[in-house]
C-alpha cells in the first residue's frame, strides 16, 4: 500500500511538471532563443504551436508563432520569416482590439522582418502603424522608445540622417530615462546612436555609444553569443577610420573569434562572413593587399553558402576586392569584381543611392588607372555630390571621392579645382583625426603631387615638410610610428622630397646636407616598417620605395665633383640598400614559410609574437660584412625557389 501511494505521488508530480511545461512553451522557446540555442527554440516553438492549437489558447498561439517568426529571421531566409509573420499579423488583427499593445508589437515585429528583407519603405509603414496604435493612457514609454529606435535605424540605412537622427535622439531620451544604463533593453539604441555618428564621419563621438553597446552585450549574454561579436565589429569601425589600427584589429579579431564559435555551433555563417570581410578590409587599408584578398574570398564563399549566388551582401566584399586588385595593378581583375558588384547592386537594390555612390568611387579609381581621367573625374564627382547632399560630407568615403577628383583634375590640368579639392580633403581629415595622422598626410601627398605636376616644387616641398613637422613634433596618443600606414605615408613623403631635391639639384648643388638629413629620416622609418610586414605582396610592393630612395640619393650625390668623402657616402648608401634589402627578403622567406599552414584565427597573433623577435636579431646585422652579400645571393635563390613552389 505504501509503495502504491509513493508511485501515485511520483506520477502526479510528473503530470504536474508536464502540464507546467506545456503551458510554458512560449517562455521556454523565448529563453532558448535569447541564449542562442536557435534550433532548440524552434523545436519547442513547434511543439507549443500544436499544443496551443489543441487547447485553443489563441493569445498564446499568436505569441508563440510570433516567436517562431523571429527564430526564422535568424536561421531562414527573410522571405520565409516574412511569410510566417504575415500570417501571425492576420491572426492578431482578428483577435486583438485596436490600440492594444500586443497588436502594436506585431506591427513592430513585421517591420523588423521587412527591414531584413530590404523592403525599407514597408518597414517604415509598419513602424508608424505600431506607434499610432499605442494608447498614450497606457504605460508604453519603453515600447514607443523601441519602435522609434527601429524607425531611426531604417532612416540610417536610407541615409536620411536629417529625418532619422531626431527620432534616434527621442528614443534615446525615452529609453535611458526608463532603464538602468546597463539594461539589455538599451542595446539597440546605443548601437543606433553610435551608428549615426559613425555614418556622418563623427568617429570619435560614436565610440562611447559603441562602448556601452559592447558592455551591455557582455553583461547580458554568454561569452560566445553572436551579439558580442557584432558589438566588437561595430566599435572596430570608428577606430579603423581614425587610423587606430591596433584597437581596430583587436576588436575585429574578437568579433571573428566569437562568430567563428557561433558558426561551429550553429552552422550559420552569415555573421562570420561579415566579420571576415571586415577583417579583410582592415588588412586592405593597412596595405596588406594579398592577405586582404584571402579573407575577402573566404567571406564571399561563406556568404554564397548562406544567401545564395550573387546576393546583396556580396557587394561590399566584391568592391573591396576590386580596390585591392586595382592597387596591385591588376586592373582586369579589379574591373571584374567591381562590375559584378554593380550588377548585383542594380539587380537587388537599384534604389540604394548610397551603395551606388560607394561603387562610383571604386569605378573612378579603376578608370584613373586606365588613363580615362575625364570619366574618372565624373564618377568621383557624382559620389561627392551624393555624400554632400545626404550629410556624409565628413565621412571617409567623401574624402576618398574628393581625392579622386583632385587626382583626375591634376591629369586634366584643371589646377585650381584640383588644389581646392585636395585642400578640402586635408581640412576634413584635419578636423576628424587631426594633423598628426596618416590620413591627413595622405591627403597632403595628393596636394603635393598636384604642385609637382605644375612644376611648383616650392609649394610641393612646403606642403610635405609642414605635415612631417606636425607629425614628428605633435602630441597625439593615437599616433604611433609602429602604425604601418602612418610609417608608410612618411616613407612616401620622404621619397617625394628626394625627387624634389633631385629636381632642385639641377640648378643648385647646395643640397647635400638636406639629402643626408632626409636619408637619415628615411632609414629610421624604414627600420620600423620592416617589422610590420605581414605578406610577400606587401614586401614586393613597398620594396620599390626602398629602391627609389637610395637610387635617387646616389643619383644626386653623383652630380657633385667626385671626392674620397663623397665616394664613401655613395658606397655607404649602396651598402645600406643591400643590407636592408637582405632583411626585407629574410622577412619575406620567414613569412612565406609560416603562411602556408597558418589557420585563420592565428596568423596575426603569430606575427605579433614572432616577427618582432626575429627582426630584433636581423636588424642587428652589420652591413660592412662580405658574408652579407653571399647570404644575399643564396637567400635570393632560395626565396625564388620557395615562391615558385608555393604559388605555381
Quick structural gist:
With 648 residues, this protein is mostly helical. The protein is built from 29 helices and no strands. The protein is 81% helix and 0% strand.
Q: Main attributes?
A:
mainly alpha, Serine Threonine Protein Phosphatase 5, Tetratricopeptide repeat, 29 helices, about 0% strand, disordered C terminus
Give a structural overview:
The structure is a single chain. With about 650 residues, the protein is mainly α. Among the domains are: about 220-350, Tetratricopeptide repeat domain (Serine Threonine Protein Phosphatase 5, Tetratricopeptide repeat, Alpha Horseshoe); about 515-648. Helix content is about 80%, strand content about 0%. The protein has 29 helices and no strands. Helix 2 (about 25-35) packs antiparallel against helix 3 (about 40-55), helix 13 packs antiparallel against helix 14 (about 270-285) and helix 27 (about 565-595) packs antiparallel against helix 28 (about 605-620).
Give me the Rg, rounded: 30 Å
Fraction in helix: over 70%
Tally of DSSP helical segments: 29
Shape: elongated
Low-confidence regions: 4-22, 474-484, 589-648
Strand content: under 5%
* Overall pLDDT: 80
Main beta-sheet annotation: none
DSSP summary, beta strand count: 0
SSE run: HHHHHHHHHHHHHHHHHHHHHHHHHHHHH
* Secondary structural class: mainly alpha
How far is the N terminus from the C terminus?
84 Å
Amino acid at each position: 500500500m505504501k509503495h502504491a501511494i509513493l508511485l501515485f505521488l511520483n506520477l502526479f508530480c510528473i503530470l504536474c511538471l508536464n502540464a507546467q511545461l506545456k503551458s510554458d512553451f512560449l517562455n521556454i522557446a523565448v529563453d532558448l532563443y535569447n541564449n542562442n540555442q536557435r534550433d532548440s527554440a524552434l523545436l519547442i516553438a513547434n511543439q507549443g504551436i500544436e499544443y496551443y492549437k489543441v487547447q485553443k489558447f489563441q493569445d498564446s498561439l499568436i505569441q508563440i508563432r510570433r516567436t517562431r517568426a523571429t527564430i526564422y529571421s535568424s536561421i531562414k531566409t527573410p522571405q520565409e520569416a516574412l511569410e510566417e509573420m504575415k500570417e501571425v499579423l492576420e491572426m492578431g488583427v482578428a483577435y486583438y482590439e485596436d490600440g492594444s499593445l500586443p497588436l502594436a508589437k506585431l506591427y513592430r515585429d513585421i517591420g523588423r522582418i521587412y527591414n531584413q528583407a530590404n523592403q525599407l519603405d514597408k518597414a517604415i509603414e509598419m513602424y508608424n502603424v505600431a506607434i499610432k496604435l499605442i494608447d498614450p493612457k497606457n504605460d508604453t514609454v519603453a515600447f514607443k522608445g523601441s519602435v522609434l529606435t527601429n524607425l531611426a535605424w531604417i532612416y540610417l540605412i536610407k541615409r536620411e540622417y536629417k529625418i532619422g537622427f531626431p527620432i534616434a535622439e527621442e528614443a534615446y531620451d525615452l529609453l535611458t530615462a526608463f532603464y538602468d544604463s546597463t539594461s539589455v533593453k538599451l542595446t539597440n539604441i546605443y548601437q543606433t546612436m553610435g551608428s549615426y555618428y559613425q555614418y556622418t564621419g563623427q568617429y570619435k563621438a560614436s565610440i562611447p555609444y559603441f562602448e556601452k553597446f559592447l558592455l551591455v552585450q557582455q553583461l547580458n549574454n554568454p561569452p560566445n553569443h553572436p551579439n558580442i561579436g557584432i558589438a566588437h565589429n561595430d566599435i572596430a569601425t570608428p577606430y579603423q577610420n581614425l587610423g587606430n589600427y591596433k584597437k581596430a584589429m583587436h576588436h575585429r579579431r574578437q568579433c571573428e573569434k566569437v562568430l567563428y564559435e557561433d558558426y561551429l555551433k550553429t552552422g550559420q555563417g552569415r555573421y562570420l562572413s561579415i566579420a571576415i570581410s571586415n577583417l579583410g578590409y582592415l588588412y586592405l587599408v593597412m596595405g596588406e593587399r594579398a592577405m586582404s584578398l584571402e579573407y575577402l574570398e573566404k567571406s564571399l564563399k561563406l556568404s554564397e553558402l548562406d544567401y545564395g549566388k550573387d546576393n546583396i551582401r556580396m557587394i561590399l566584399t566584391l568592391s573591396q576586392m576590386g580596390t585591392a586588385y586595382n592597387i596591385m595593378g591588376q586592373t582586369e581583375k579589379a574591373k571584374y569584381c567591381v562590375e559584378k558588384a554593380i550588377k548585383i547592386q542594380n539587380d537587388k537594390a537599384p534604389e540604394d543611392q548610397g551603395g551606388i555612390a560607394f561603387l562610383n568611387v571604386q569605378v573612378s579609381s579603376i578608370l584613373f588607372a586606365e588613363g580615362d581621367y575625364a570619366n574618372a573625374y565624373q564618377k568621383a564627382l557624382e559620389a561627392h555630390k551624393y555624400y554632400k547632399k545626404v550629410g556624409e560630407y565628413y565621412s571617409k568615403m567623401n574624402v576618398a571621392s574628393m581625392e579622386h577628383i583632385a587626382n583626375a583634375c591634376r591629369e586634366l590640368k584643371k589646377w585650381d579645382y584640383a588644389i581646392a579639392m585636395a585642400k578640402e580633403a586635408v581640412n576634413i581629415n584635419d578636423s576628424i583625426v587631426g594633423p598628426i595622422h596618416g590620413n591627413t598626410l595622405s591627403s597632403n601627398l595628393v596636394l603635393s603631387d598636384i604642385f609637382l605636376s605644375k612644376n611648383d616644387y616650392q609649394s610641393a616641398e612646403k606642403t610635405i615638410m609642414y605635415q612631417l613637422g606636425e607629425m614628428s613634433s605633435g602630441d597625439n596618443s593615437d599616433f604611433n610610428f609602429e602604425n604601418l600606414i602612418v610609417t608608410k605615408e612618411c616613407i612616401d613623403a620622404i621619397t617625394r622630397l628626394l625627387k624634389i631635391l633631385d629636381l632642385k639639384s639641377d640648378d643648385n648643388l647646395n643640397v647635400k646636407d638636406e639629402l643626408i638629413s632626409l636619408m637619415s629620416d628615411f632609414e629610421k622609418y624604414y627600420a620600423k616598417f620592416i617589422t610590420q610586414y605581414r605578406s610577400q605582396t606587401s614586401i614586393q610592393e613597398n620594396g620599390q620605395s626602398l629602391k627609389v630612395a637610395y637610387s635617387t640619393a646616389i643619383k644626386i650625390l653623383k652630380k657633385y665633383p667626385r671626392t674620397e668623402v663623397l665616394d664613401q657616402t655613395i658606397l655607404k648608401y649602396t651598402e645600406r640598400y643591400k643590407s636592408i634589402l637582405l632583411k626585407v627578403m629574410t622577412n619575406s622567406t620567414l613569412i612565406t614559410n609560416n603562411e602556408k599552414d597558418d589557420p585563420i584565427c592565428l596568423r596575426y597573433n603569430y606575427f605579433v609574437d614572432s616577427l618582432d623577435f626575429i627582426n630584433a636579431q636581423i636588424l642587428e646585422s652589420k652591413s660592412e660584412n662580405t658574408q652579407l652579400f653571399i647570404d644575399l645571393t643564396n637567400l635570393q635563390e632560395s626565396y625564388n625557389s620557395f615562391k615558385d613552389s608555393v604559388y605555381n
